[in-house]
Amino acid sequence: MTPEEVLARLDAPLSLRRRVGYLAVGFTGLTGSGLIGLLWATEPELPTRTSVAFAALVAIGLCWAAFGGWAVTRRTPLFARDRVVAGWLGVGAWLAFSVGALVISVVRHEFEPVLLGMVLVLGVLAGAHLRAARRARAALLRRRTALAAPGEGG
C-alpha cells in the first residue's frame, strides 16, 4: 500500500458495520430511556430515590441515543473520536452509578461489599476503555501526520 492509499483509508467515513452498530446503540438508548420514562410516568407514588434513579437512567439512555445519532451523521473521518466519546460516556455513567451507590450506602448506614466490588470493577472497565480509546486515537493521528508529511513514506 502506498502512503496515499493508507491516507485515503484513514480519511474514510465510518464503515457500514460501524454505522449499523451506532444505530443500534442509539435505538437501544432511546428505547431504554423511553421504557423507563413510561414506567416512571405511570407510577406516581414512587419513593424519591427511585425517581432519582429513573431520572439518571433516562438521562444516560438519552446520552447514548444522542451519541449514536452523532456518530452516524458524521460525514468526516473520526479518527477514533467516536471511541473516545463513548469512553467518556461510560465513565460518566459509572460516576452517576457510583454517586448513587454512595448515597444509598450513606442513607442506609450499611456497607455493602458486593456493591463496592461492582463499583470498582465497573470503574476499572470504564477507565480501561477510555484509556484504550484515547491511545487508539493518538496512534491514528500520529500515523496520519507521519503519512501526510512530505518526503516520509511511512
TrEMBL record:
Transmembrane segments: 20-40, 52-72, 84-107, 113-133
Keyword Membrane among UniProt keywords: yes
Keywords for this protein: Membrane, Transmembrane, Transmembrane helix
UniProt name for this protein: Transmembrane transport protein
Species this protein is from: Micromonospora parva
